[in-house]
């Protein structure tokens, strides 16, 4: 297989992703913004809750984080690493929401998330399961405004991010395969 440079591979993702844009109506964007505004201001704490839930459902995922693989689920809350990462995830979702009007920036953010995790072995299923927990959390927090239409709008946003990440994974795989 021909060897490609990092710049060529990035150009390749971007070429493929030109044909995959996110079509969100004004109403859908509004629902996403409204429901996300109910997130807690304590991003670290909320992000931690979301990851603890992910590890309760899938204890084996602890092993993505070197220092967490042998920690009991009950003690995970004490981990600064997990709080830090949980906070980063919440901030990134805020950035995605803030970027919905700029398709190119939104795509580039999703590419960055996929690239940051490829070598760590995080794949489609882990993101999908994480996003499902984020939506459960929102349903709970933003129950006043969270309805089926809001759920569908979020699904569209997260499915788009997953699609971009899948494309990144394919190219990263080609690089190593
Ligand atoms: C939208 C979802 C996610 C976002 C925005 C996100 C964000 C980040 C960021 C910004 C970093 C630091 C990257 C770097 O310094 O190179 C990181 C590292 C990491 N992420 Fe994620 N992440 C997400 C999902 C996940 C999932 C689902 C897992 C595993 C179940 C995961 C596991 C890790 C690990 C193991 C690291 C390295 C931590 C370390 O420094 O030891 N991430 N993530």
Automatic annotation (TrEMBL):
Keywords from the UniProt entry: Heme, Iron, Metal-binding, Oxygen transport, Transport
Occurrences of domain Globin (ranges): 23-170
Name of protein: Globin domain-containing protein
UniProt xrefs under PANTHER family: BLR2807 PROTEIN (PTHR46458), GEO09476P1 (PTHR46458:SF1)
InterPro entries with a match to the protein in the record: Erythrocruorin (IPR002336), Globin (IPR000971), Globin-like_OT (IPR050532), Globin-like_sf (IPR009050), Globin/Proto (IPR012292), Mb-like_M (IPR044399)
Family per record: Belongs to the globin family.
Alphabetized CDD domains for the sequence: Mb-like
Originating organism: Paralvinella palmiformis
GO molecular function, one term: heme binding
GO CC entries: extracellular region; hemoglobin complex
Taxonomy, superkingdom: Eukaryota
């Amino acid at each position: 297989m021909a060897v490609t440079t990092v710049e060529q591979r990035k150009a390749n993702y971007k070429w493929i992703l030109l044909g995959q844009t996110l079509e969100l109506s004004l109403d859908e964007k509004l629902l996403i913004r409204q429901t996300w505004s109910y997130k807690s201001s304590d991003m670290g704490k909320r992000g931690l809750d979301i990851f603890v839930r992910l590890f309760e459902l899938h204890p084996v995922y602890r092993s993505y984080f070197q220092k967490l693989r042998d920690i009991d689920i009950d003690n995970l809350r004490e981990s600064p690493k997990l709080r830090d990462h949980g906070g980063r995830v919440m901030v990134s979702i805020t950035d995605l929401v803030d970027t919905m009007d700029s398709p190119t920036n939104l795509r580039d953010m999703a590419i960055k998330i996929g690239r940051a995790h490829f070598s760590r072995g995080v794949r489609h299923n882990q993101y999908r399961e994480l996003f499902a927990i984020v939506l459960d959390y929102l349903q709970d927090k933003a129950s006043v405004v969270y309805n089926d239409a809001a759920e569908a709008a979020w699904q569209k946003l997260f499915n788009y991010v997953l699609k971009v990440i899948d494309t990144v994974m394919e190219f990263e795989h080609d690089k190593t395969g």
